[in-house]
Amino acid sequence: MLRSGALRLCPPGALRGPRGSASPPARESRPPPRSFASEAIRVDLSLPNPSWSKDMRLLFDQFMKKTEDGSWKRLPSYKYVSPQSTEVKTFFPDAKPVKGADMPQAQLFPRSLEEGRGFEYAMFHNHVENRTVCIFQGGPYLQGASGFLHGGAIATMMDSTLGACALRAGGVAMTANLNINFRRPIPLCSVVVINSQLDKVEGRKLFVSCNVQSVDGKTLHSEATSLFVKLNPKKV
Amino acid sequence: MLRSGALRLCPPGALRGPRGSASPPARESRPPPRSFASEAIRVDLSLPNPSWSKDMRLLFDQFMKKTEDGSWKRLPSYKYVSPQSTEVKTFFPDAKPVKGADMPQAQLFPRSLEEGRGFEYAMFHNHVENRTVCIFQGGPYLQGASGFLHGGAIATMMDSTLGACALRAGGVAMTANLNINFRRPIPLCSVVVINSQLDKVEGRKLFVSCNVQSVDGKTLHSEATSLFVKLNPKKV
């Protein structure tokens, strides 16, 4: 069932279509998450919700099919970041991060906007080919030039996808360089596919690249190369 | 007067301090904006509000002083993008943007999160030196690694600052390349200064660079070069 409130977020054509036949339970079939962080931390936001367009649902279903033989895995995604991840603080001891106890409201940036208004996405990883694919629908709150996604919103999803690929290939790592070529603007509320792959490993350096394509693969919207550095406090 | 609700967004130390002595009226002195877009489109969000920390207010006051002799100008910023800006659609006629009538909820990405939770910033431009400075406080909803800003949030503010610099130097332009080196992570709720400058103009190409520094100038967090291309539909 599509909620009428969500229908208004994107143009009518983008939101009609059959419900996806994805095997995992869709988000709309669950009761709305409670506002307690202890509850919300367990809500996987990489599942279909009423704001997803037909294109988004079809792509999701296609990738879910690929998970059946184990070659691809869907990556869950949560609004809250584990406060246990202290690698960055150890690697940069003078960086003085905000402590978790002082920041109960901290949320993962790409999950901080309301459902359907910001980043709607799901990622899938192939551990044999070291590839991560992100299907991404950018909502109306991600506007840059009138009617198009902001470059920073595209950079955010590229960085997230590249980071997911680097993480699975080499462990906890941070972006050291991100070099993006923006070729064609992305209309608001459209769906794109971000294809990333690990290109090379040199010691603690992970070289990962990606492109952003339209659903039909005919339009190349953006490309990026990146360098991630593995955090290994013991060697610092 | 600081509102208690806003005080909870960032660690206590970051939000205490005297009210800024800025000459323009602060946002908190106005009645809350109405929800009609026709009203909200006129609310300039580049003015102090209760979520701004002491550092943010002091920097704002310093730059406001520089505007007094006319060498620097404060750049206003709004949540809604003018639907009249059709340059992108003309430049990329096959891009099919969402039309304004279908997207009444569209909001400028860096202004789409609630006050104090996302991007709090103000920009100042020096038209003689072709420089744009952005003072930026990243809120708790911009988290990447635990306690630090997401790389995409940093990229967003860099792209916005570089774009503002390019716009004032050469007219409407779009990001073609953005190459970022992330050197030191930025703690959530801290304030940083983004310094951008126009380096070179070659025909329709504008080369703009920037860095992101701590308030005391001792820490270089990130650097970026960028290429913007002026949109001139008549020449296409």
Structure keywords:
alpha+beta; 236 residues; disordered N terminus; homodimer; 21% helix; 7-stranded antiparallel β-sheet
Question: How is the topology of this model organized?
Answer:
The structure is a homodimer of 236-residue chains.
Chain A: H1 4-7, H2 12-15, H3 37-40, H4 54-66, E1 72-75, H5 87-91, E2 119-126, E3 131-138, H6 151-170, E4 173-182, E5 191-202, E6 205-214, E7 220-230
Antiparallel strand pairs in A: 1-2, 2-3, 3-5, 4-7, 5-6, 6-7
Notes on the structure:
The structure is a homodimer of 236-residue chains. Chain A is of the alpha+beta class. The first copy, chain A, contains 6 helices and 7 strands. Chain A has a 7-stranded antiparallel sheet. Chains A and B meet through α5, α6 and β4 of A and α5, α6 and β4 of B.
Strand content of chain A: 25-35%
Which chain pair shows the most residues in contact? A-B, 68 and 68 residues
Instruction: Specify the number of helices of chain A.
Output: 6
Distance between the termini of chain A: 53 Å
How many strands appear in the DSSP assignment of chain A?
A: 7
Strand order of the largest sheet of chain A: 1-2-3-5-6-7-4
Largest sheet of chain A: 7 strands, antiparallel
